[in-house]
């Protein structure tokens, strides 16, 4: 994390806006800093008489990250799982990507993921 807290994506501000943590290069390109508002658009949308209209949601920049890869730092943002589910109209997770320090522990970490996700989703159910 360059600034802010990753935990801030789970909390909504007093104004009801969810948090988003965005790549440092994306923040620079957009000219935004912590506390600024951005609009998130999804390619999936709602069907209207005018065609498919992308879903949008305002969010407050809660922090900036740098993974050290321009492809990610210039294009990605992270939001809470419940917000992502609502915006994408999905019940679950499609992809999980992790970076670990010890490549020889990759199999152990991968084996622990299903149990970890099961505990976290049963402890904090998403909106209905």
Protein model, in words:
This protein has 128 residues and is α+β, with helices and mostly antiparallel strands. It has a domain at 3-90. The chain has 4 helices and 5 strands. It has helices at 24-30, 70-73, 81-88, 106-123, and strands at 3-4, 19-23, 37-48, 51-65, 77-78. Strands 1, 2, 3, 4 and 5 form a 5-stranded mixed beta sheet that branches. β3 (37-48) and β4 form a beta hairpin. The longest helix is centred in the C-terminal third of the chain and has 18 residues, at 106-123. It is globular and about 50 Å long. The chain starts with a strand and ends in a 5-residue tail after the last helix.
Question: Could you list some keywords that capture this structure?
Answer:
alpha+beta, 4 helices, 128 residues, globular
Short description:
The chain has 128 residues and is α+β, with helices and mostly antiparallel strands. The chain has four helices and five strands, in the order E-E-H-E-E-H-E-H-H.
Q: Tell me the helix content.
A: 25-40%
Largest sheet: 5 strands, mixed
| Structural class label | alpha+beta
State the total count of DSSP E strands: 5
Low-confidence stretches are 121-128
How would you sum up the global shape?
Answer: globular
Portion in beta strands: 25-35%
End-to-end Cα distance, whole Å, is: 31 Å
* Number of helical segments with 4 or more residues: 4
User: What is the H-and-E element order?
Assistant: EEHEEHEHH
* Overall pLDDT: 84
């Amino acid at each position: 994390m360059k600034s802010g807290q990753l935990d801030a994506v789970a909390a909504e501000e007093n104004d009801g806006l969810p948090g988003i943590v965005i790549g440092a290069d994306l923040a620079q390109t957009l000219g935004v800093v912590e506390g600024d508002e951005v609009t998130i658009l999804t390619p999936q949308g709602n069907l209207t008489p005018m065609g498919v209209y992308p879903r949008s949601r305002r969010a407050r920049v809660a922090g900036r990250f740098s993974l050290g890869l321009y492809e990610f730092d210039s294009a990605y943002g992270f939001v809470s799982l419940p917000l992502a589910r609502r915006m994408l109209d999905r019940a679950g997770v499609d992809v999980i990507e992790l970076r670990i320090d010890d490549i020889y522990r990759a199999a152990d970490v991968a084996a622990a993921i299903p149990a970890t996700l099961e505990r976290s989703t049963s402890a904090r159910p998403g909106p209905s």
